[in-house]
Input
Amino acid sequence: MENSHRHCLCAPLYKVTLPDFFLADQLTSQVQAFRSLVFYVYYYLLGDFTTRSNDFMESDLSYKLLMVVVAIIPFWSRLIQCLRRLFEEKDGSQGLNGLNTYWDIVIDWGLLRRNSKNPWLRDKLLISNKAVYFVAIVVNILLRLVWMQLVLDFHETAFLHRRAMIAVVACLEILRRGIWNFFRLENEHFNNDGKYRAFKTVPLPFHYEDEKIM
Output
């Protein structure tokens, strides 16, 4: 894991492996958590908690810059990983990786295949109840829209405070990423969709034979 963190921060210098890209994807979903951590560091470090104020949010330039940097780093790391794969593998689709819901469902999950033996899913499925996959697709789209609502700053609601909305959306994004993790790994296991391994099974150092016990 330590190596993966280093590879994410120095993405152009290392070949992208499954743990590296997977970690970078997780970090993009944790941006709001990182920004909240920065907020509380300033809140308590500057002593604003004693007066229950947060004036530094408007007046402290270092705070504003750090909030921007913290938000950019995970997405920048993932973008650089995609660009390295674009140049190494000559796969133009890598340049579009991570830009929309379509990529999550069709590329990362390998679903919505019209000609699959499991209509609109994919040939190989781990879960026998196919409805689970369709529910996951709908949930992913809805939670993406909720996340966009925060990014586009449509956070004012009549029933929920702005800070509460940010916390709720951050939790929902973590939930969405958890669902994504399961179906992404399932697809990679069955289809090697990301081309991170050269063979499907790993031979174990055991040899089983039917032997008659004397």
Notes: Helices lie at 2-9, 18-28, 31-45, 56-59, 61-89, 101-108, 131-151, 162-191.
